[in-house]
Write a structure and sequence with these properties.
- The protein is α+β, with helices and mostly antiparallel strands.
- The protein contains 1 helix and 8 strands, in the order αββββββββ.
- The protein starts with a helix and ends with a strand.
């Protein structure tokens, strides 16, 4: 039984360390970098919509999306429209050495004619 106990404790320890590293990296990017606005938009829309940015230069970016409905996902695309990565969160820090585009998918709230969506793309510049 000793080995099983060590495996279970080790498993949970690795999960805890992984979560700590993720929050540590998030804190580092929030404090060590300035956010320079590249594209910040807010619009009132109806129905399910998406936002597609222009092609962004290589670098580190913080992408945020908000909606009175639901932010379904943030997708990073290459210049040809191929999916590089997807995130089902409302904010994302992404770094790239090649140009890319950002697509944000929004889902409309139920029984609402119009709702507000916003997107913010900020270039992270070392302080």
């Amino acid at each position: 039984m000793g080995i099983l106990k060590k495996l279970v404790v080790g498993f949970f320890l690795l999960i805890f360390l992984g979560v700590a590293v993720i929050f540590g990296m998030q804190y580092y990017y929030e404090t060590a970098y300035d956010k320079v606005p590249v594209e910040v938009k807010t619009e009132t829309v109806s129905g399910d919509v998406f936002y597609l940015s222009h092609v962004l230069e290589p670098g580190k970016y913080k992408i945020t999306a908000e909606s009175e409905g639901t932010v379904e996902k943030i997708t990073i695309l290459d210049e040809n429209g191929n999916v590089l990565t997807e995130s089902e969160t409302d904010s994302l820090i992404y770094g790239s050495s090649v140009p890319f585009q950002v697509r944000v998918d929004y889902k409309a709230p139920v029984n609402v004619e119009g709702y507000t969506v916003s997107v913010g793309i900020y270039r992270l510049v070392k302080k």
